[in-house]
Amino acid sequence: MTTSYPAAPAASTAVRPLRRVGAVLLAVLGALVGVVVGGLTVLVVAAVAPQPVAFLGAGAAAVLVVTVLVGRGAVAVGRGHRGWWAALVIGTAWTALVGVGFGLLFLRPFPEMREGPVPADVRFWKLDDGSRLAYVASPATVAGRKPTPVIFLHGGPGTPDEGLPYGTAELNAAGYDVYSYDQIGAGRSTRLADVTSYTVARNVADLEAVRHRVGAEQVILIGQSWGGSLAAQYLAAHPGRVAKVAFTSPGEIWPEAHPDTDVSPWGALTGAAEKRYDELMSDPRFLLQALLLENSPQAAHRLVGDAESDSRLHEIAVAGRDLGGCPGGPPGEGEVHQNPQGFYTNQLTNADFDEIDDPRPVLRTIRTPALILRAECDYVPWIDTREYRDTLPDATLVYLPGAGHGITGDAGPAYLRAILDFLAGDPLDGYTGADDPAP
User: Fold this and answer.
1) Average pLDDT taken over every residue of the chain
2) What is the model's pLDDT at position 117?
3) Euclidean distance between CA atoms 113 and 272, whole angstroms
4) For 265, which of 68, 130, 323, 382 could close a Cys bridge (C-beta 3.0–4.6 Å)?
5) Tell me, what's the pLDDT at 284?
6) Do residues 123 and 137 make contact, with C-beta atoms less than 8 angstroms apart?
7) CA-based angle 199:113:138, to the nearest 5?
8) Which residues pair with 126 in a beta bridge?
9) H-type helices in 179-296, by residue range?
């Protein structure tokens, strides 16, 4: 007599749920890997092909290929056959979904700032490469005009004033012609198609071209913030062309002189201003632009153009409008101007500034009279301001209490008196101590 037993379930039936779970997990992993590979592809291709259609298209193709290949494996695990058509449908659908999400996150332009009409007193110098520098000029208003004009250098890089700077009328009355110009890539001056051309050397060469345009053998430079850094670079390159130089709340003379100091004011933001700053800096499109800037500045520029980027820089400046004064002081304007600011010249010139050679050995041999104005609440570290006095042999440092980085807003009369006395050769009450004079 034989005894029959129930048949065991087929192996395929027993393991089918596990295979389906494995297939799903593999498909999800493939989708995520596809996004990662697509993002890396965007950065790699952008470095050699900065056209958005090229690097974004390559990224989409990478997402599709990876998703299809892994999807085919997922179908094979779940169904036991290759399933190319199913994998292609899955890959195409996922790539389209990623593309829509990418577009919503990264391709929506930031609102552009409305640019006002060009003021009647703004004129333009045309440079040899065809670019133009916008400028305003105010002639001396007395007989006995001095042959050495005053040229103001604005800060940033990329944040020019609109119109003539503080104290122009008094300088005119002292016999000086006064010029103020928008540096390349900022204000109403030309935006360069090749953003990698925004360098310190370019700014020095432009300033030398400006000297030629005004027809002066020598000039007097007044550099505010980054403009002070530029004035130092020009002095090192063309010492014989500078009669006198004033550094007002200057930026670093050379970033590597004190690499551990922080010249950024943004850590002092609080409340609504801090929230707005964080919103701007964490915007996905801005983060993508920052990644591309590190990898391929031209790709960043072609994806996010000048008008949009300059508008964003303006909004960032608005968030920090009170950082130029002393804490607890009246609301300020910071470096907020209706004159368009220059995002790419700011980013690329600053990056280049971090790489330049040390100008101090040359500056230590130059006996051009120099004035350094240090404000009590300047956010630039004291040691970076003192470096000017320590480097330049014929330098005088004057301390102005009750003022911040935007020095003329709170200490205008004292600022102007120091400038006029310096230019006239009158004695100045200079600070010679090693420690920060601020209480």
Assistant:
1) 89
2) 84
3) 21
4) 323
5) 95
6) yes
7) 65
8) 132
9) 200-214, 226-237, 271-281, 284-295
Cα 435 to Cα 108, 379, 427: the distances in Å are 49, 16, 22
Specify whether the CB–CB gap between 388 and 397 falls below 8 A.
Answer: yes
Q: Does 23 score more than 60 pLDDT?
A: no
- What pLDDT does residue 327 have? 79
Evaluated on CA atoms 283, 288, 289, 295, the torsion sign reads positive
Surface-to-core class of residue 95, CB atoms within 10 Å of its CB (0-12 exposed, 13-18 middle, 19+ buried): buried
Q: Is 5 exposed, middle or buried (0-12, 13-18, 19+ CB in 10 A)?
A: exposed
Query: Exposed (0-12), middle (13-18) or buried (19+): which is 227, by Cβ within 10 Å?
Result: buried
Residue 369 in tokens: 């009279």
Mean pLDDT over 325-332 rounds to: 70
- Other C-beta atoms lying within 10 Å of the C-beta of residue 357: 10
Q: Are 125 and 210 in contact (CB under 8 A)?
A: yes
Q: Give the residue from 209, 198, 212, 208 showing the smallest Cα distance to 231.
A: 208
- The span from the CA of 213 to the CA of 250, in Å, is 26
Is pLDDT of 222 > 70? Answer: yes
* Average pLDDT over every residue of 397-420: 93
If pLDDT is split at 50, 70 and 90, which confidence band does 14 have? very low
User: Distance (Å, rounded) from C-alpha 210 to C-alpha 219?
Assistant: 10
Strands 242-248 and 370-377: parallel
Return the SS3 of 109: coil
- DSSP secondary structure of 151-168: EEE-BTTTB--SSSPTTH
1: number of Cβ within 10 Å: 2
Place of tokens 């995002």: 343
pLDDT at position 25, please? 67
| Residue 278, both tokens | 């964080």
Q: Sign of the CA dihedral 150, 156, 158, 164? A: negative
What digits encode the pLDDT tens for the residues 267-319?
888 899 999 999 999 999 999 999 999 999 999 999 999 999 999 999 998 88
Residue 75 has pLDDT above 80, yes or no: no
**HSE-up (13 A, CA, CB side) for residue 203:** 34
Number of Cβ atoms within 10 Å of the Cβ of 252: 24
Structure token digits, residue 357: 């050679």
